[in-house]
Structure formats: structure tokens, C-alpha cells
Design goal:
Largest sheet of chain A: 6 strands, mixed
Number of helices of chain A: 14
Strand order of the largest sheet of chain A: 2-1-3-8-7-6
Oligomer: homodimer
Structural class of chain A: alpha/beta
Distance between the termini of chain A: 44 Å
Chain lengths: ~400, ~400
């Protein structure tokens, strides 16, 4: 059982939605690197009574309390005062800190308002943590077998302070000797519930699932992950496209580069998204030749040479047109592979035979063309993303088969 | 004194730092539109005991409790069960919800694991909130003069549900009568500091600025905004492209539709992003004809007929090639307007004469072609977005001039 750790972030701007709170994300990631995790995170505004209550409640539960924000010079900054009062430790000015603040203003050539020196107040027995990127120092206080660490709110001040002063102390005192490892597998083409069902139990590790747009993350956390990894790989096979932060488009660009092959795309309903995703990957220019965004029927005829009779007979959203688009795209661009999409993104344009959400996804290879049909019941942008995901995954699987790494 | 409102977000992935928690930001912004604000926000992992404690503590303090996440089908989803147990309200399957879930799987043609039907369990007396974007419904429970609302975790499921079912109820029951009004103006083509300088002071309102990717938001909050609005509009003029949630691509599609005009795009460095953004707008098919993603030199020649001599003499990233792309795109597609981009997204591929970040943006109209040159010193994806923003804005300003609404 590791020490319980809580985080309190303060700032009325967070509760008003003007500022996205990224401290939780940052601190959690840093703690994970030393095998620790947060047990709870609380956000309160710049209100002394609310902050006092939140700190008192957290201290009643935890061994380590990290708090961010409210150390600045303005009237709404109250964390220092609230903590000093709550712990019964009077504040006194630390002249070393005061000198550092004065020096900072002097070097910048700015007149220093006297209020700024509030930031040199330190609760009795607290250790000040230097802040080379701002005026407010951090504060670390040992109190009745609790460690309380107060950190400045601005990320560019908080981050170096956290890494230089806080993380080493936490590692030395609280990191488990035999710390757990975490891995994340990225899965495409299976619903979250199906992923869980296929994996079943994974003894000895903590198993977590997170459904993202068009993919599922499977997270395992434990001391020894080998057995769980073997089980997950056996259960999901080629549905696993990567790990950690891998993106499907990156995987595909790498596969193409490794195989020395190229791709082009013909997009109707995805409207350029597949090309956009591929060209987000640095180095895409070596493998991506061209994209045809053939949104109108006329452009399918003009840009790709789809026959007007095919469009008239089967409609633009059809297996036949998708096949023709993929094959023409491959032929005209000179690429080794071509992807094509045609579908009804909605919210308008559906019919009983061809409802909103219907999409055909084509893959043309040097030897054959395959077309998948899906019904993607999502809003317009999610529809486009899912369709792009299925298309990229079709190419990934083809490359897995035909160009296995040696 | 308005009703106390708290938010609990759940998910071990949040406390492990795998997922950035954006729910607080979103919900706070929506509450602000009806004059309400959150008093506290708590994040806990997928641990039933911890979640139970956090919910019990919040209920002891607040009038309205909003909770997100933990309604899914997997074993780590426990919010529904924890709340039912805590409130002493047994869970029973709602067959209407179960049928909707079965229907969703049936329509998509996917086998449904039995576990998915956990999501049809409803605590006694709770109201289910329909989820058209996923399987887990939301739940609203009135309990001992508290309102408890449980919402799904995925943002694309949470947001429409919150706006359709939760916000109206909160507005009707808890919004203050004499509420301040908030308006947000969206500005393109000016840096945040320039926007602030141009506006100057705005007496009687609270003024806020937020720099977003490729645009700046100016926020005014107060009882009477007329004078401040007049001042802001005079200071920023046509740099204001919209308000609130307006997106530049929506504005452009609306302008084109109103003018009965069409557009096509020829994208090199933006790689399909402009086409993607335009086709994100419902109804884009009436105004967007085609996109040419001419990433390679060969494709610029093949798809657009750019002359190999022009490419050889000036290079692909040049005013001349950009102009040729825009004009060919307009001619070949038959559109009234064409946009073209060519540049160096990086991080590799720059030279002393043509550094990473250099981009040319072309607009071809029925009467002339104009080409802008910019140096966008950003990472690859931000570069692409800024370039797409400048291109769309060039078309917006052209349409402002030539097709003023009557």
C-alpha cells in the first residue's frame, strides 16, 4: 500500500471555464514515472473558506498533499495564508526571498509594488522552494506526519519546481521499491465491450479500458506484465496497432516507408481527412502521393474518371462507385495502394435504402480491390473520423500481411 | 446566493495522466451562459469506495451534483451501482433502454456482448437521459432535495446530452433572475496583444482575452453590453468573423451558400485540412466541389497541370507555383473560387532561402488571383492549421467585399 497522495488546484478561472486545468494531467504523468499515483484531485476557486475546507478534508485523508495556485501577489491569492492559519503556523517574512523578489524587479527595470513582498511570507517551519521563473516561491511543510507542498499556478513556474524539488523528495520517501510498470495497447476495429470480453481476466495486473474516437486503449499496470501482455496479444491479435501515444496514421506511414511503398486517397465523405491525417506525420511526403477530394458527382467523373453510368445506376454511395474510385485513384496517381471513401455523413441526405451513416471504404492493391460496408451512427465529424480510421486500418492490415517486418 | 453546484469527474485514466480532463472546462463554460458557476470539482479513479466517499461528501455540501464517467459497459465502470447503493435505490433494467442498445448493435451489424446491457440498469425513480451518440444513457435523480445527474464520460456523448437535457433544467430551476450576460467575439488575423491594445478600456464590463489556435476570443461580461460591443466592433472591424462557438469554416460555407457560389481547393502543405474543415460543415456539398491534395511535385503536374518548368525554375514552394495551383484548381473544378497552399510544414525540408514555416496562400476569383506569403513558426500540425486559417480568411474577406448581405 503506497502513501495516499491528493492534489488540490485552485483558481476561480478554472471553475469559470476560462482556463483549461492541465496541472492534474502533468502531475499525474510525473508521479507515474516514479510508481506513484494520485488518489484524488479537487479544484476550488479563490475563496478562502472553500479552500480551507478542501485542504482540511484532504489532510484528514492523505499522507501527501500537493496544492497549486494562489501564491501570487494579488488580492485573490490566499493559499499561503489559509494553510498557515489552518496549521497554526504564523507567517514571517523570509528576507532571502524578499531580496530575490526585489532583485528580479530591479533586473527587469520595473517599479515593484509593495504588495509583491507578500510572496516572501513563509509559515513557521516551512521550507521555501526557489522559483527561478517567477516571484512566488513554493513551500514545503512537514506537519503531523503529513507532507504539504504548495506550488505556483503558472505551468512554466510549476513544472521546473515540481521536477527539481518535489519529485526527488517524493521518490526518496514514497516511491515503492518494487514499483509497478504501466503499458497501454491501442486497439482498432473492436468495440470496448468486445475488447474486454476477449481479454477476460488478467491475474496479477490492474486492467483498464478507455474508449477513444475509433479506437480503444487497454491499460495494464503491475509488477510483471509479461503474462498479461501475452494474453492480450493472443486475444486481440492484429487489432492491436500500437502502444502508448502511437497514432494509426503514424503506424501506416512507417509501414509504407519500411516497405518502400506509396499511397494515394480518393475521398468523398471523409472530405480530405485521410489526407490530412497522413500529412500530419512528419515524413509523409515519402509515401503519400496525392489526394482527390471528390465531393460532388461531377468531380468523381472529372478527377477520377468514374463513369456517369455507374453513378446513375448505383448512386454515388455504393460499392461499385467506391471500387471505381479506389482503382482510378491508384491508376491515376501511380501509387502502390489507394484508399477510397463514399458515404452519407449526415445529418441530412439519407434515404430508407441509404441511411445517414452508411459508408463504403475501398482499398486497391497491386493485385485486388476490396470494399467494406459500414453503418456509422455518429455525428458528422465522428462519422468522418471513424470512416478514416477504418480506411487507414484496412491499409495497415494489408501491409501487415504483405510486408511483415523481417 | 445561488444553489451550490459541484462536479465529480471519474476515471483512473484521469488520475494516471493518460487523459486530459476537459469536462470541467466545458461544463463550467456552459453553466456560465446561464449565470451559474461550479463551487467545487473533484476527480476520483474507478474505485468504488473512493467514488462513494466523494459522492457522499459532495451531497452533504451541495444542491446539485453533476458526475461524469463510469456509466460504460466494462467492469471498471461503477458510478451507476455506487450511486444506487448510496441512495438506497435498487437498480432495475429499463427495457426501452435495453432495446435501444440492442437496436444500435443490430443496425451496425456487430455482435452484442451481454455485458453491454448493464447500461440499461436504472436506479428506482431515476429519469434516463437519452444518448443518441452512444449506448449509456445519462441518469437524473431527485433525492432528498438534491438533484444528481450522471453523465457519460466520452465528450461527444456528454456534450449533446448536457445541452439538451441538463442545461435547460438547471436554467429553469437555478439560474439567477438578474444574470450578467456574456458574449464572445471571435477574431482572426490579429495577435492577442494587438487585439487588447486596439480595444483599450471597456468601462462597465469585465473584459477577457483568450488566444486560441489561429484566432483570438474577446469575452465581455456584464449587465449591459451594448456600449462595449460598439467599441469592440469599431476597433476590430472585419477581423471579427463570428461570435460564441462560430467556426471560420462555417462562416465561409454560409457566405458561399448565401452568394450562390462554389469553391475548390488545391492543397500541398495543408494536406487536405482545408477540404476537411469545409466538409465538417453540414451542407458543404452545396458549395464545395472538389479538393486536390497535390503533395508530390508529380501530382502538381498530373492533377493540376502545373508546368514542370515552373516547378523547376521557382521550386514547389513559390508564389508562381501557388498562383498556378489556384488558377488551375478553379479552371479544372469549375468552381467560382479556388484556394491553394504550398509551404514547408517541417520539421525537416527547410533551406536558408526557404525556411521551415514558409507558406504561400493563393486565392483565385473570377477576376484575379492574389497570393499571400507568411512565415508560420510552429510545430507541423499548428502550421497546417494556421495556413488553413489564412486561406479560409482570404476567401471570407473576398466574399465580404463582393457579396455583402443585402
Amino acid at each position: 500500500m503506497s502513501a495516499r497522495i491528493e492534489l488540490i488546484t485552485t483558481g476561480t478561472e478554472l471553475l469559470l471555464g476560462f482556463t483549461l486545468n492541465t496541472h492534474l494531467n502533468y502531475i499525474a504523468q510525473k508521479l507515474a514515472t516514479i510508481g506513484l499515483r494520485l488518489d484524488r484531485h479537487t479544484t476550488v476557486g479563490d475563496d478562502p473558506a472553500e479552500l480551507r475546507a478542501a485542504i482540511a478534508e484532504a489532510l484528514a485523508r492523505c499522507r501527501v498533499l500537493l496544492a497549486t495556485g494562489g501564491l501570487g501577489p494579488t488580492a485573490d491569492d490566499c493559499t499561503r495564508e489559509v494553510v498557515a492559519e489552518l496549521l497554526g503556523r504564523p507567517l514571517a517574512r523570509d528576507e532571502t526571498i524578499a531580496d530575490a523578489i526585489r532583485e528580479r524587479f530591479r533586473r527587469r527595470g520595473i517599479a515593484m509594488p509593495e504588495s509583491v513582498l507578500r510572496q516572501a511570507l513563509v509559515p513557521a517551519g516551512a521550507q521555501a522552494l526557489p522559483n527561478p521563473h517567477g516571484t512566488a516561491p513554493g513551500l514545503a511543510i512537514e506537519h503531523e506526519n503529513k507532507l504539504i507542498v504548495l506550488l505556483p499556478g503558472p505551468p512554466r513556474e510549476l513544472k521546473p519546481m515540481f521536477e527539481q524539488y518535489v519529485l526527488p523528495v517524493l521518490e526518496q520517501n514514497f516511491a515503492p521499491a518494487d514499483r509497478p510498470v504501466c503499458r497501454v495497447f491501442k486497439v482498432v476495429g473492436l468495440a470496448e465491450s468486445v475488447v474486454e470480453e476477449r481479454i477476460g481476466a488478467a491475474p496479477g495486473v490492474e486492467l483498464g479500458f478507455c474508449a477513444r474516437m475509433g479506437e480503444v486503449e487497454v491499460r495494464i499496470l503491475g509488477k510483471n506484465l509479461a503474462e498479461a501482455e501475452r494474453k492480450i496479444r493472443a486475444a486481440l491479435g492484429p487489432h492491436i496497432f500500437g502502444e502508448g501515444d502511437d497514432r494509426l496514421e503514424e503506424v501506416v506511414v512507417k509501414q509504407l516507408a519500411a516497405a518502400g511503398k506509396t499511397v494515394a486517397v480518393a475521398e468523398s465523405c471523409t472530405g480530405g481527412l485521410i489526407a490530412h491525417r497522413l500529412t500530419n506525420v512528419s515524413g509523409a511526403s515519402r509515401v503519400f502521393l496525392a489526394g482527390y477530394v471528390t465531393y460532388s458527382n461531377e468531380s468523381k467523373v472529372e478527377l477520377l474518371g468514374v463513369r456517369p453510368e455507374t453513378l446513375a445506376r448505383h448512386g454515388a454511395v455504393s460499392e461499385e462507385v467506391c471500387r471505381a474510385m479506389a482503382e482510378a485513384c491508384r491508376r491515376r496517381s501511380g501509387a502502390d495502394f489507394a484508399l477510397a471513401t463514399t458515404g452519407i455523413a449526415g445529418p441530412t441526405g439519407g434515404t430508407p435504402e441509404k441511411p445517414v451513416g452508411l459508408v463504403y471504404i475501398g482499398l486497391a492493391t497491386p493485385t485486388r480491390t476490396e470494399v467494406q460496408r459500414h453503418l456509422l451512427l455518429f455525428d458528422r465529424e465522428t462519422f468522418k473520423f471513424f470512416a478514416s480510421q477504418y480506411a487507414l486500418d484496412a491499409l495497415r492490415r494489408e501491409l501487415l500481411k504483405s510486408h511483415r517486418p523481417a
